[in-house]
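FAQ: What does a multi-protein file look like?

Like this. Sequence, then tokens, then the next protein.
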Amino acid sequence: MSNARRLPRQVVGLGLLLALAAPAGAQLPPRLTPGSVADQLDVARQRLAGLPAAVTTAAELETLAQNLRSALASQLAKPLTALDDRARGMVLRAHAAAQWATDYADGAAGCREGETVAMAQALAWSVHRLVQAPADGKPMQATIDRVETADHAALLALRMAGKPVALALVGSELQDPQCPDPGLTATDANGTPLPVQPRITGVSPTRIEFEWPGTAALIPGSYVLHARPQHKAFLVGCSAQPEAAVALQVVPSPKFTVGYALDAVCGREAPRTVALGEGTLPPLEGYGATVSQAIDTSACADAVAYRISATVAYADGASAKAGPFEQSADANATVGLPGGLSLSWDPAVRQLFVHSGAPLCKGVR
């Protein structure tokens, strides 16, 4: 028997071996049906209910769920494979909207108001696009469920960076293996292509990986990623399909400026307050940075306590105040500031320190 005739048996044998080697407890992803996706929309809408920036999106999710239950009332329990192309497209777009809302709700914890608003703008554009999409009957209807970072974290807003950023679009019908790679274009909110475009680094029907250079040159605002796959049809060849598009908000690179006021409580018998210093520490560029400021404490030689107040200014123009905090003069004082910063006063070395920790807002990278 020739090698050519043995090859199919070898392939089959390898497939059986891999199947037997699969973990017994491995779980399949949940089966999508019109009814299950309508339920996903309900859950996502409830999660957005307590987030003021997403009120409009919550209403659109409710409309999507109602449309699914009304238009596909007799097919709510049917899987995608049992639906026609038009109904399948409705379900996939509704599922994508639910995923965007879920990612927003998951990522909003720990965010400042400006970050939450930026994420909500990307969410609103992407969900509205899905709601307004025509009920097309094409066999291949691309949808984008989320934008991901290289570590598979959902992303709605991107901080400006000097280095290229590795991202991915995740969804369905994003590529036909029989056709060339899909088109991928980045535009501003008005649809004007950017001078520097993303470069695709990997592609599959459910994922487009790409590198986006030049984000440091962008101004903060809304940008749109357009994916346009091709589909091969009998006797026709590969032809462009309707595009799928999502919004991504670009926000300034992290920069923090902390103003301070330090007072001492002097004397135990007759306490008096003495101002030791007031000013602004050097700015912190990015996360994991530390700056310090020396303070002259000679005006209070018998301090029993210190009081610290702070004002934080952020790169997006927002600001926040904290304090006053009071601490015994016998110990270091460390207090948390909005945005993941910490302010420390060390009386032994007579210095103020400000440290920017890890980013707290998960939906912004």
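And here is the next protein:
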Amino acid sequence: MGFSHQTRMLPVAAAVTLFVTAADTAFAAQPLDSNPAAAIVDSAVRQEEALSSAEAGKVIRAIDSTRDNIGAVRKTTKLDTVDIIFLTDAARSEGGPPPAIENKVKQHKDDVAELRQEIEANALLFNAIDSRRVLAEDVLAVDFANPGKIVIYAAAKPPK
């Protein structure tokens, strides 16, 4: 006596139904907001354009602090402000960062790569950069100099 084809398929059909129902519920729980970054970030996201030569000292200090800042990024759940500094002359379309900054990034390449991964994994920070069309791979460094505020240095041009 064997099981019929129908009897064997019942657990599979039940599992598929349960999965589809759970997926529908999960999607229904997501708010339909035209600007999800504003709902998640819940802080001011500001942007500024600068030349890398004017910001080089700050960027290099921030890159040197990347190892310490990785933990801060990992723990960040709320900020008053997120400042994104677009280093427009350091964008890929402009040939990338100047040698002083590029060499510092190379010197800390593993830490910078980990920082970028942590930013992508952090809903608040990812949505902040995404709202300004900054790719994580364009982030050079972050600075937590003031409580409740992060400065993100990006080798990119702002969206038009």
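Q: Is there any per-entry metadata?
A: Some entries carry free-text notes. For the entry above: The longest strand covers residues 44-50.
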